[in-house]
């Protein structure tokens, strides 16, 4: 087996709620291979969002470590974190989180600016990604002029802009209707088939049902980790 | 990144516009007050350079306080090292005005001494006074422009003589025989008339306002100044150095006015930038968190927010300079028709204004930028 693209080792996170410690994550370990399409599910408070912010360097663990592409990202200092976020991780959020003042094109472009990609390359890549997302005609629209599904596709294009090792999607279908949801999940799956590692956090079982692997969390621990053979979607 | 900064500013046009306007007003104050201070500095510099070689001799009691008989000039002249000494009678052209800000001044001088007094100044129209001239006058360039006079025209001069409790105003018509070139000194506001005529007209007997002592070429003016004071009774002297010091002291006031205008501008303009930027930063909390999640470095965010503040400062500076420049131009134009010029907008002043406004923007952007950059991406993204 190849070296895993994401490796989580004994990850723990304890919050202090007043004087009472809350164990949001306790001793979680697992590996993800390149090109995997997996979902993390569980009820609210099961630790899945905490977990996602640990992997995405948005928060620091109390114990344990996360390796992405062989780099121990949990050891990264504040000054190293931006580089790792740029090069290893692409985020897709529930609320899309596009910059409202920028057009779809500029929203994708800005991610590459922080990575110091030269302008001509940025233009080319942003146009290519948005075309792949089926947004060729909507590139110059502001987020407010786009539908939820379109906004989320812009967000996915943005997440992919710097060729990250892994895309972390936090409830990517939380704010769209079922039809758009299916479309987004299909889109993500298509990307994973081309070798893009994608990790979705969701509480929507109809989303997780379409991923290849499901990690179920409960009370900060992994309850089950199953390969999902079904995975296919029947478009009605 | 610059296009992003521009986009953020234009996105909030009214707010940015008001902030820029605030800074512009501050810079306008700097230009107007600074222009005034620069003008006074320049005039005094020029005036000093024209008269720096002479020692002033005043009556002991003070300028205008006691009588200084012109015969003292002969005593002063007898002091070793004095090449020449002569009395000057000085009076305000308009006795009603205080003549504080560059008011016009009548200067009575013996015609044969006027070249010594005026040094290299030339007449552009007509001639200088000649020995034996009666009610004749040579005008400084500002006076000529104020009253729109040429050589050959007449100028009415008033004198006020105090007799017991009442004062009587006399008016005499003087014939203008010459107009002097522009010197940038107080001579531009001078009306030069013969000393004997001035003494008669102002009813001053044989007294003068002060005596000018011209040192011998190889005599030190400071030493000579002390020597005159020791040798001649009931007088005190002002050496060129003392005069310069005294004028500098009075200029401190103008410098203070300029500095306080600048400080006021800094407080008002700076606070409005801080306010605008803090609002803009807190509105965009999520945006900055998102940028950090996308891998933006702290310096990227600092650059964007400080750049926004700096740009508002620069824009305000440019608007303030244009507005202040225009205001000063029209004020000077208006004042020129009344015989004075009050403002000089020097390159130095412009440089100070633009550097000042930029620094103002950058410094006031510092704290909001720091707040934006220190935001944890997690907190920022949770923020709704």
Automatic annotation (TrEMBL), chain A:
ABC transporter domain location: 6-233
GO molecular function: ATP binding; ATP hydrolysis activity; transmembrane transporter activity
Gene Ontology cellular component terms for the protein in this record: membrane protein complex; plasma membrane
Name of this protein: ABC transporter ATP-binding protein
Membrane-spanning segments: none
Pfam family, one: ABC_tran
Keywords: ATP-binding, Nucleotide-binding, Transport
The keyword Nucleotide-binding appears for this protein: yes
Domain of life: Archaea
CDD domains according to UniProt: ABC_MJ0796_LolCDE_FtsE (cd03255)
Source organism per UniProt: Candidatus Methanoperedens nitratireducens
């Amino acid at each position: 087996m190849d070296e895993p693209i994401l490796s989580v080792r004994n990850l723990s996170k304890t919050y202090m709620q007043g004087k009472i410690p809350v164990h949001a994550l306790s001793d979680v370990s697992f590996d993800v291979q390149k090109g995997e399409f997996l979902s993390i599910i569980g009820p609210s408070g099961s630790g899945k969002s905490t977990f996602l912010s640990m992997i995405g360097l948005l928060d620091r663990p109390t114990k344990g470590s996360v390796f992405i592409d062989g780099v121990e990202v949990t050891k990264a200092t504040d000054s190293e974190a931006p580089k790792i976020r740029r090069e290893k991780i692409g985020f897709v959020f529930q609320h899309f989180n596009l910059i409202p003042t920028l057009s779809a094109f500029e929203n994708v472009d800005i991610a590459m600016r922080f990575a110091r990609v030269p302008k001509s390359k940025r233009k080319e890549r942003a146009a290519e990604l948005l075309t792949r997302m089926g947004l060729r005609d909507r590139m110059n629209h502001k987020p407010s002029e786009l539908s939820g599904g379109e906004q989320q596709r812009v967000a996915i294009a943005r997440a992919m802009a710097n060729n990250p090792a892994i895309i972390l999607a936090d409830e990517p279908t939380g704010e769209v209707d079922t039809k758009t949801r299916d479309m987004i999940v299909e889109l993500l799956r298509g990307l994973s088939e081309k070798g893009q590692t994608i990790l979705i956090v969701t509480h929507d079982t109809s989303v997780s049902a379409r991923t290849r692997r499901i990690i179920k969390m409960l009370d900060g621990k992994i309850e089950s980790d199953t390969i999902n053979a079904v995975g296919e979607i029947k478009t009605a | 990144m610059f296009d992003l900064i521009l986009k953020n500013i234009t996105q909030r046009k009214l707010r940015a516009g008001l902030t820029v306007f605030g800074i512009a007003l501050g810079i306008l104050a700097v230009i107007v007050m600074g222009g005034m201070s620069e003008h006074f500095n320049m005039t005094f510099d020029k005036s000093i350079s024209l008269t720096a070689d002479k020692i002033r001799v005043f009556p002991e009691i003070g300028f205008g306080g006691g009588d200084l008989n012109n015969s003292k000039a002969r005593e002063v002249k007898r002091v070793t090292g004095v090449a020449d000494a002569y009395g000057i009678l000085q009076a305000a052209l308009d006795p009603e005005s205080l003549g504080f800000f560059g008011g016009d001044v009548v200067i009575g001088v013996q015609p044969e001494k006027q070249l010594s007094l005026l040094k290299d100044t030339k007449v552009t129209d007509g001639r200088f006074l000649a020995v034996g001239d009666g009610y004749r006058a040579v005008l400084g360039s500002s006076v000529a422009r104020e009253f729109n006079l040429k050589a050959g025209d007449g100028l009415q001069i008033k004198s006020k003589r105090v007799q017991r409790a009442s004062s009587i105003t006399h008016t005499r018509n003087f014939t203008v025989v010459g107009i002097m070139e522009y010197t940038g000194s107080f001579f531009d506001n001078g009306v030069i008339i013969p000393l004997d005529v001035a003494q008669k007209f102002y009813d001053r007997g044989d007294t003068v306002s002060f005596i000018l002592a011209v040192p011998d070429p190889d005599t030190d003016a400071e030493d000579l100044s002390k020597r005159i004071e020791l040798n001649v009774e009931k007088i005190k002297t002002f050496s060129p150095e003392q005069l310069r010091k005294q004028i500098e002291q009075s200029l401190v006031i103008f410098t203070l006015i300029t500095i306080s205008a600048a400080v006021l501008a800094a407080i008002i303009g700076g606070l409005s930038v801080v306010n605008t930027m803090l609002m803009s930063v807190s509105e965009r909390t999520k945006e900055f968190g998102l940028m950090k999640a996308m891998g933006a470095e702290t310096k990227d965010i600092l650059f964007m927010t400080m750049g926004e503040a700096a740009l508002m400062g620069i824009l305000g500076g440019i608007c303030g300079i244009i507005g202040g420049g225009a205001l000063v131009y029209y004020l000077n134009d208006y004042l020129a028709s009344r015989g004075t010029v009050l403002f000089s907008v020097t390159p130095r002043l412009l440089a100070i204004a633009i550097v000042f406004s930029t620094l103002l923007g950058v410094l006031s952007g510092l704290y909001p930028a720091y707040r934006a950059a220190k935001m944890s991406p997690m907190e920022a993204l949770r923020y709704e």
